[in-house]
Specification:
The protein is of the alpha+beta class. The protein is 31% helix and 24% strand. It contains eight helices and 16 strands. A hairpin with a 3-residue loop joins strand 1 and strand 2. The radius of gyration is 19 Å and the shape is globular. It starts with 16 loop residues before the first strand and ends in a 6-residue tail after the last helix.
Length: 297
């Protein structure tokens, strides 16, 4: 039975900054990022965790970063614990497969979202205004419809609460026109290549979000990339516009929460064993389909 790593405490290291799912240790000239097995939805951290989730997502991100290295540099220094500083090697059992050493970056304060299909907040915006983040779309589109072409829809990065979709012009005001155009270009290139790969493996990449940062003034791809936590993956064999597609991401958890009667504000209900197992099986299936291999668990 897989062990669930809820959070980490590594002796002789500073107390980590804990995000919703990651523990980040500041090592001075670099960061140690550990992907734990916590899972979040609707801006709440849920219990229990999903055993092995951190390893699956960390290794999937490493897989994608390697494949996009010719498009944009990334922040990775090392992904194998044997290449970590000697004082970390003794914690190999904990860190193996779920941690990376990365360069520090000045994080761009916007989520870079690419969409090829109409879903989630994009679908809600479309039903109200026939546009998404200021981008007009044709009349008559249905939920899960394929868009005429992929679109770039940035969002503000919120420390707490929901990220807020904004127009490209708002992003350009925040980071400058030239950088905004380059981030849009990179996001759509990476999305397009990822979508093209997974469709051959019976998956649809409906939408995804990227994070970028500046290292020595140069744009780098950082954080997680094309994982079931940062992306919407659908079963291509069952996709039908107008319906909620079968997914290989945490939409499964969101659907259960919606059906539970939870108000999205009070402390969330505990996930039952069948939802934990179902989530893990979906993440594993996504990993296998995308990479053609098994994750190190």
């Amino acid at each position: 039975m897989l062990e669930t790593v809820w959070k980490t405490e590594i002796p002789h290291l500073p107390t980590p900054k804990r995000g919703k799912v990651r523990d980040i240790y500041d090592l001075g000239d670099m960061l140690l990022i550990v992907a734990c097995d916590r899972i979040s939805a609707y801006d709440h951290i849920l219990r229990p965790g999903i055993p092995g989730k951190g390893r699956i997502l960390s290794q999937l991100t490493d897989y994608w970063l390697d494949r996009f290295a010719d498009v944009v540099p990334n922040h990775l220094i090392a992904t194998d614990v044997k290449d970590f500083p000697s004082h970390l090697v003794e914690y190999r059992e904990l860190l193996d497969g779920r941690s990376v050493l990365v360069k520090k970056a000045e994080v761009v304060p916007f989520e870079c979202v690419a969409r090829g299909y109409l879903a989630g907040s994009g679908f809600r915006e479309y039903t109200e205004a026939r546009e998404v983040c200021g981008i007009p779309l044709p009349e008559g589109l249905m939920r899960a419809d394929k868009l005429p072409e992929p679109i770039f829809t940035p969002a503000t990065k919120a420390e707490s609460g929901h990220d807020i979709n904004v127009s490209f012009d708002v992003m350009a005001e925040g980071v400058g026109q030239e950088m905004a155009e380059r981030l849009r270009e990179l996001s759509l290139i990476i999305y397009g290549r990822g979508a093209e790969q997974v469709i051959d493996r019976e998956l649809i990449l409906a939408d995804t979000k990227f994070e970028f940062g500046l290292i020595d003034g140069e744009i780098h791809l950082i954080d997680e990339v094309l994982t079931p936590d940062s992306s919407r993956f659908w079963d291509a064999r069952q996709w039908e516009p107008g319906t909620e597609p079968a997914s290989f991401d945490k939409q499964y958890v969101r659907n259960w929460l919606d059906e539970s009667g939870w108000d999205h504000e009070s402390p969330p209900p505990e996930l039952p064993a069948e939802v934990v197992d179902g989530t893990l099986s979906r993440y594993l299936e996504a990993f296998r389909k995308i990479t053609g291999s098994e994750p190190q668990l």
